[in-house]
Amino acid sequence: MVIEQAQITVHAGQEQAFEKKFYEVSEVFRNTEGCQKFRLLRGIDHPQNYALVIQWTSKEIHEAFMQTAEFKQWFTAIKPFLAERIKMEHFERTL
Predict the structure, then answer these.
(1) Which of 32, 66, 82, 85 has the most C-beta neighbours closer than 10 Å?
(2) Residue 19 maps to which CATH number?
(3) Would residue 33 be called left, alpha or beta, if left means φ above 0 and alpha means ψ between -120 and 50 degrees?
(4) pTM for the whole thing?
(5) Residue 35 domain-assigned (yes or no)
(6) Number of separate domains in the chain
(7) What does the pLDDT look like over 25-57, one tens digit per residue?
(8) Phi-psi region for residue 25, left (φ > 0), alpha (ψ -120 to 50) or beta?
(9) Three-state secondary-structure class, residue 68
């Protein structure tokens, strides 16, 4: 199991619109083999900052997903809200 954490910053004042669009297009994660679960977290101190946390069966599955038309459609849908480039890392459990 691999955990992807994507740090997403949206334009200030666009938080609600971003969340609405994200939920509209989040079906892509539910329908992707290898995506076990996901959640979107909003910053309390800086509400324009989000953490997208996704549990994948493997890093290879996630990387393959990022090459699909479905991922590209998802990214195109959320791109207008982005204030900066998404920062992404993979993690594994230690405990």
Answers:
(1) 32
(2) 3.30.70.100
(3) beta
(4) 0.93
(5) yes
(6) 1
(7) 999 999 999 999 999 999 999 999 999 999 999
(8) alpha
(9) coil
